[in-house]
């Protein structure tokens, strides 16, 4: 049985501060070298900007290891690159060690990169139950119920035996490299970062009717071994709960 730990904030600044406290108390203080899988999207963008302005010195960037849960198959300078966004807003503005940044190379051949990144996870993360373990996986929630880059029309990929796979956006066809459900659900902490009225219906369906929607939305398949999902939401995203 999954426990949904729901945290609702009046605005994005308050949400960013709340998530930073969670990161500090639950992840950083408990691990000498915290391993974090970052997410792309509008809400992490706000959080990264908040960190660079307010926590460039207050967080121990020199001992944090950054990975990504998914990446679009574009070069890092492309405006759609998750890594590129993080680099511009955060990495270039804090003292993080280059050797502690493990990006997905969106410019590489997708299937080769998925295999390579699987090896990166195995080589640079602790392994439990035969699966690499993140201290924290940050997740977004799409309007269609997708998370990382596993979309409803490719939901079977959630159960793939591989650590990383290649997916494609159902409308644009753009290829993406994504970690799979086995990696997400093996993490010590999983946090959804969700903002905006457009997400409210999916938030309600997933939290209140998770068992009814397991076959429909990838985000409903997030069932970490820890037994808890922490939701960081603004009032608009949580308005239908």
The count of strands amounts to 11
- Number of distinct helices: 6
The CATH topology turns out to be: Rossmann fold
Instruction: Assign the CATH architecture.
Output: 3-Layer(aba) Sandwich
Strand order of the largest sheet: 1-11-10-7-2-3
The whole-angstrom Rg is: 17 Å
Distance between the termini: 19 Å
Structural class: alpha/beta
Order of SSEs = EHEHEEHHEEEEEHEHE
**Poorly predicted ranges (pLDDT <50, ≥5 residues)?**
none
Morphology = globular
Chain-averaged pLDDT: 96
- The proportion of residues in beta strands is 15-25%
The major beta sheet can be summarized as:
6 strands, parallel
Total tally of structural domains: 1
> Helical residue percent?
25-40%
Briefly, what CATH class? Alpha Beta
Could you give the topology of this structure?
Layout: E1 3-9, H1 12-28, E2 35-38, H2 42-54, E3 65-68, E4 70-72, H3 82-89, H4 110-124, E5 127-128, E6 131-132, E7 136-139, E8 164-168, E9 175-179, H5 181-184, E10 190-194, H6 200-208, E11 228-234
Parallel strand pairs: 1-11, 2-3, 2-7, 7-10, 10-11
Antiparallel strand pairs: 4-9, 5-6, 8-9
Helix pairs in contact: 1-2
Keywords summarizing the entry:
alpha/beta; 6 helices; 241 residues; three-stranded antiparallel β-sheet
Task: Describe this protein's structure.
By secondary structure, the protein is of the alpha/beta class. The protein has helices at residues 12-28, 42-54, 82-89, 110-124, 181-184, 200-208; strands at 3-9, 35-38, 65-68, 70-72, 127-128, 131-132, 136-139, 164-168, 175-179, 190-194, 228-234. The chain has one domain (3-234): Rossmann fold (3-Layer(aba) Sandwich), CATH 3.40.50. Helix content is 27%, strand content 20%. Helix 6 links the parallel strand 10 (190-194) and strand 11 (228-234). Helix 1 (12-28) packs across helix 2. The longest helix is centred in the N-terminal third of the chain and has 17 residues, at 12-28. It is globular and about 40 Å long. The two termini are 19 Å apart. 42% of the residues are buried.
